[in-house]
Design brief:
homodimer; mainly alpha; 5% strand; nucleotide-binding (chains A, B); ion transport (chains A, B)
Chain lengths: 811, 811
């Protein structure tokens, strides 16, 4: 985490270099798979990195290589942009645990160590809950305040936001809760009036100015200090949690910068949400706090577990404290990833986060009420038609959004556009702010807009959306019947329609810019607006034409037939489903929100239609599409591999290629091995009994091999180029005056996974997915034949799906 | 499913025979593992069984064995009491799917077939939802009616239950909702009065008589028609879903008999619940309806998927329609088992089931209200002490219950007791009924009792539990303050204490008898009673001693400090957690029921304490304990294997044993193979290149081998004992006049799983668990060394946990 300077440009530079290699160095045609496992070259920086990851220096390593107690530093760690080996990491954790348990019987000190080790998990959860809860609370409060800052300032104290400012004012009437003398718009401050065209222009100008300032600050901070802080972070987190390594992506600089820039980005009024970036922030908390505990610092698998806890803690925590709806959905989406055993801990961290959040932000509580809507009117079977229409809209919008957004992002990556992120952000912000200010629905924050759209009009609602005629006529039973729309509703409809168009267009260009940006809130807003428009339309249709055949059986005059708020909710679910394709969790959440069996069918109908429509136009959700765009090695857990290919079709070497590069267990010298290492770029080598028999003994990683040989040459007396490397348990007695041997059995993985060459690829994919493998060896009748890496599997899947196999960049 | 007669006794007879083998035939010591994979002997019944499972007869098989298009019937099926191979089953389904998809391009008919195949899943779900929903509704209504039948009968119509009977009566007052002239107790019918000691005795007598009659009918039906219908069925279903085969366990006879006897058992007043058996009923529905669809009938893995849908449909469905709480918890417990993709279908089936259930049983709706309690009083930090006490009670009770119940069940299996199930049931019923009648809390149905205990006393509650002094004094704000208990409450306390003792004792003997019996409701009742007792105690303590230091800071006089209903709920969660050890889902559910963040900490504290206490006294939940008691091969998904053993320590043959029995790929005659088959009982044989090289080619199943050879001898011209069996792709040209060869490559599994002998067992266990393997071959440096079966793994786990490894009976 301390070589931030190195990381800044590394993602891009490395990416381009490895793809160049893929295209240039291969003798075969473009159709042929890349022969290499793209390992970044080992340079001088490795030792520095290892130190920070291992805690110990090289000097402490043992001189007796034969009875090596302490592992050589660096052995067992990973390079940046590589995939971890879940099996190895889990084994290491279990070894560690066993060792501590065994030692605990020896002394009191060891016993205390053992207890504290067991307890550290809970302490870590407590810290994660506290940290992520506080950060979420801070972000919430600051974003609120800064959003209001664009419109004016509180004279009572500049640190009050609009709501707070008028909270304690005595001059507030119930009707105009938002207006109080303590709150001054910019025009009041500058030209001492809030009336007239000039005041409007001053406010307009200040609004745009603040937006540009916030956006500029956000993009500059991201660009200078933490390039990984941009975007939602979800594609990368999905990949990292599945076992990929991106150093610094969950580091402290990313955390700090992302927290600050998230507030700025949200306040700037751009069409983005804070849910995705908040997930990234929570994951950073989890990952950083891991470094305080030995147990977690050294184990990549354990770290990923804790990171998930961080994620869950914020998701559950926010949902418990009722802050945002989106987080809740996120929690469900990810929680099925890690074993059930650890759910307790997530839950605990979530509780802590929720309490922290509540105590920091006491007004967060009221949001629960905003989003929690209880509808009472039953829906009619006929209404399924508009609900399904909303589903189709959601699916179409989702597919369209993914396509255009990915196309735009690709353009950003490949053309000059990507070189001017600051200008891009400023232009988009300027357009958004200039178009947003005149329309009250675009000017208000998007989550406020959504809650207003979800809301069913009550007796006391003063919003324009509820400006019906005969507002105060209740039917028997106190229900508000369907009523003709008033002027307010009509003007609201127009404004909402304009808002819809703006949101649809601008979100495409916003998501993926070099600032933190989430997608939940904009998607839901699009759906909710469309739903509300349709809902009000249906309501008016039913009111004016209740004698039509489709209405007259169930909607008599003066009854409350149609609930526009429900339409908004259904629309939001449909759009969210279309973009993210996570339909089940969505329906469950929406079901909980509406709190009844009644509305599950509309929600389900819309969400399923949306998913089907969107799937028909493109298989991937937005996050998977971004994962593919970036070429990350992510093996989708759900997707079944449906083609009838065999392991031998995927393994390397291919039929016309030279033989597989192997090491023998007892006949190669240090020099031979070093030649193999320098002539190839494979990330590991199988070790066999002899080249003739090709009987597999084990697998050794390139990185471990290099470090061990280097180490042996430095420390071990007399290891020279002609020393023979033994991977066997006992080396034979040597005649005197031969150079000393180098025993490397300790770095040999003695249980490599093997499959036969006739194993169907569907089984191989299943093994890779379920066991989290990095590579798998292929045998035929007991002879070693080839190797399949995770990258090969991903390339094969891409090829079978008629996608470009070279889009998979990393191993 | 049609050889019911055979199945009746088979479970027991087979079980004893195989364990005898284990003890007698092994040359090594008792510590040594059994060498054999206990395969039941192949007898004449196999063909009959296969026919019913394959749909085709043997006569249809192809004469050209070399170019076998159609598989030999029987190849690819499993014996009873064996474990399926998930990898093979899934591959088969994918092959099938691919074939249909490919064919669909050829003709319109094939296209229709393909579409209907894709659609059949949804149709199946619809049917499952309808069937399981109807059955659940029927069971509910009948059990209600028959429970009331024990007390009296409705003169308006004998088919009305008590509530129904008085529903339409005009003579009912609000205070005495239960008393109406239309409802006649047995004493009123027989001696025309309801008063006096004699009437009481008549009612008492009739109550016991009906209970005995119901119990007798239930146990007789189970004994005669469907022995698998007894118990809760959950241990067996867990095992079956994990891939074990018990023919008839989910068959139509089991379904019919279990449905009928469940009603009888519940009505008889025994201390049992209907949730577990309902799950079994739903699974039967799923499994039986599978037989209507080709896609599902032939594939064991697919069938299991559908069975889970059946299970989920009922669980979710009931929870949606609000019938029972227990089902809801069940749904969560099992839903993490199968891939997320299929959750949609479960959900759909659940919706259908919920609607069916609602339309059948319109009064089921009111139950939701019974269990849904909204508490408003906040709890105080000090109250965590009683909550944790409840947790300890729950844990202790759970552990005690599991121990005594398992000990009693073991006694039933091993002694004479097991031979007289009818007498046992009658005795327990008689004791329960005789002790239950005088006490109103034992006389009412257990779910009614629980809802009464959960309920917080309102102004209008007329129950004895709410008989406080100053009943109608409300504090400011309309709250009911803590009040001194009246006579009713004191007598209720005594009766509840007696109920608690009775339930604790009698449930131990009830669960496991030869009638359908669930455990959710009795466990919750025990916890709820204990909780309510403690709650009322705390309430009175706080009322009379509000000046004590622990109370006076938060509980002023006249305030509503303590909610006894909350204590009941916490107690129920603790006891349920102690018995089943499924704490997380429990808390989530209870959290939903109470509907607020407020009560999640009490519930969590109690559930966690309960789990820790119970785990300290015994690792297993009740279902896992029963699985182990019955020796089923169930590999727990959560439990981590923490010992540092290697594959070579577990594999067979052991060091001193004779070599592994293998077949060679091209040098053994039919006679050689038949000798191997008759001399061993292994369920499969590895095929190697030659005995000298021990290079692995593949794995062939004993069952497939026997069927294929038998088939070849019957159908293929000239295959005799000296024919050579070839497992290779091409057999070499033979000199004339040698007997024709037999090619068996088509039954050879060419992609057997292998691990090296140095693979840690934790990884092996992980592979078995995640991939659903049946066996795995062990190699050393490319040479075949041994084999590990699922049974070996389970035995090894049992041995490492200091349990009897011979308790694992099946493979």
């Amino acid at each position: 985490m301390d070589n931030r300077g190195f990381q800044q440009g590394s993602l891009n530079s490395f990416r381009s270099s490895s793809s160049d290699e893929d295209l240039m160095d291969i003798p075969g045609t473009a159709m042929d798979f890349s022969m290499r496992d793209d390992v970044p070259p080992l340079d001088g920086e490795i030792e520095g990195k290892d130190k920070s990851y291992n805690g110990g220096g090289i000097g402490s390593s043992n001189r007796m290589m034969d009875f090596l107690e302490e592992p050589i530093p660096g052995v067992g760690t990973y390079d940046d942009f590589n995939t971890i080996d879940w099996v190895r990491e889990k084994s290491r954790d279990r070894d560690r645990h066993r060792e501590i348990t065994n030692k605990s019987k020896e002394s009191t000190w060891a016993l205390i160590h053992s207890v504290s080790d067991a307890f550290s998990g809970w302490l870590l959860m407590l810290l994660i809950g506290l940290l992520s809860g506080s950060l979420a609370g801070l972000i919430d409060i600051s974003a609120h305040w800064m959003t209001d800052l664009k419109e004016g300032i509180c004279t009572e104290g500049f640190w009050f936001n609009h709501e707070h400012c008028c909270w304690n004012s005595e001059h507030v009437t119930f009707e105009d809760r938002d207006k109080c003398p303590e709150w001054n718009s910019w025009s009041q401050l500058i030209i001492s009036t809030d009336e007239g065209a000039f005041a409007y222009i001053v406010n307009y100008f200040m609004y745009v100015l603040w937006a540009l300032l916030f956006a500029f600050l956000a993009v500059s901070l991201v660009k200078v200090f933490a390039p990984y802080a941009c975007g939602s972070g979800i594609p990368e987190i999905k990949t990292i949690l599945s076992g990929f390594i991106i150093r610094g992506y969950l580091g402290k600089w990313t955390l700090i910068i992302k927290t600050i820039t998230l507030v700025l980005a949200v306040s700037s009024g751009l069409s983005l949400g804070k849910e995705g970036p908040l997930v990234h922030v929570a994951c950073c908390c989890g990952n950083i706090l891991c470094h305080c505990f030995n147990k977690y610092r050294k184990n990549e698998a354990k770290r990923r577990e804790v990171t998930t806890h961080g994620l869950n803690s914020l998701s559950f925590g926010e949902s418990l404290s009722g802050t945002t709806l989106g987080m809740r959905i996120w929690g469900l989406y990810v929680s099925y990833y890690f074993p059930l055993k650890t759910l307790w801990r997530s839950f605990f961290a979530a509780l802590v986060a929720a309490f922290t959040l509540r105590s920091i932000n006491p007004f967060g509580n009221s949001r629960l009420v905003l989003f929690y809507v209880e509808f009472h009117t039953p829906w009619h079977l006929f209404e399924l038609v508009p609900f399904i229409l909303l589903g189709i809209f959601g699916g179409l919008w989702g597919a369209l959004f993914i396509r255009t957004n990915i196309a735009w992002c690709r353009k950003r990556k490949t053309t000059q556009l990507g070189k001017y992120p600051v200008i891009e952000v400023l232009v988009v912000t300027a357009i958004t702010a200039i178009l947003a200010f005149p329309n009250e629905y675009t000017r208000m924050s998007t989550s406020e807009l959504i809650s207003e759209l979800f809301n069913d009009c009550g007796l006391l609602d003063s919003s324009k959306l509820c400006d019906y005629e005969n507002r105060f006529n209740t039917s028997k039973g106190g229900e508000l019947p369907d009523r003709p729309a008033g002027v307010g509703v009509y003007s609201a409809m127009w404004q909402l329609a304009l808002t819809l168009i703006l949101k649809i267009v601008i979100t495409i260009f916003t998501f993926g810019m070099k600032i933190p940006s989430g997608l939940f809130i904009p998607s839901m807003a699009v759906g909710a607006i469309a739903g509300r428009l349709l809902g009000v339309g249906m309501e008016q249709l039913a009111y004016y034409h209740h004698d039509w055949a489709i209405f007259n059986s169930w909607c008599s005059q003066g009854a409350d037939c149609i609930t526009p708020g429900l339409y908004a909710m259904v629309g939001a679910a449909a759009c969210l489903g279309g973009v993210t394709r996570m339909t089940v969790s969505l329906v469950v959440i929406m079901f909980e929100l509406t709190g009844g069996l009644e509305y599950i069918v509309p929600l389900m109908a819309a969400a399923m239609t949306s998913k089907w429509v969107a799937d028909a136009l493109g298989r991937e959700g937005i996050y998977d599409a971004h994962i593919r765009l970036n070429g990350y090695p992510f093996l989708e857990a759900k997707e079944e591999f449906a083609h009838k290919t065999l392991a031998m079709d995927v393994m390397k070497p291919r039929r016309n290629d030279p033989l597989l590069t192997v090491l023998t267990q007892d006949s190669m010298t240090v020099e031979d091995v070093e030649t193999v290492i320098s002539e190839t770029t494979y990330s590991g080598f199988p070790v066999v009994v002899s080249r003739e028999s090709q009987r597999l003994v084990g697998f050794v990683l390139r990185r471990d091999l290099i470090i061990s040989i280097e180490n042996a040459r430095k420390k071990q007396d007399g290891v020279v180029s002609t020393s023979i490397i033994y991977f066997t348990e006992h080396s034979p007695p040597m005649p005197p005056y031969t150079p000393p041997t180098l025993k490397l059995r300790n770095i040999l993985d003695l249980s490599p996974f093997t499959v036969t060459d006739l194993t169907p690829m569907e089984i191989v994919v299943d093994i890779f997915r379920k066991l989290g493998l990095r590579q798998c060896l292929v045998t035929h009748n007991g002879r070693l034949l080839g190797i399949i890496t995770k990258k090969d599997v991903l390339k094969h899947i891409a090829q079978m799906a008629n996608q470009d196999p070279d889009s998979i960049l990393f191993n």
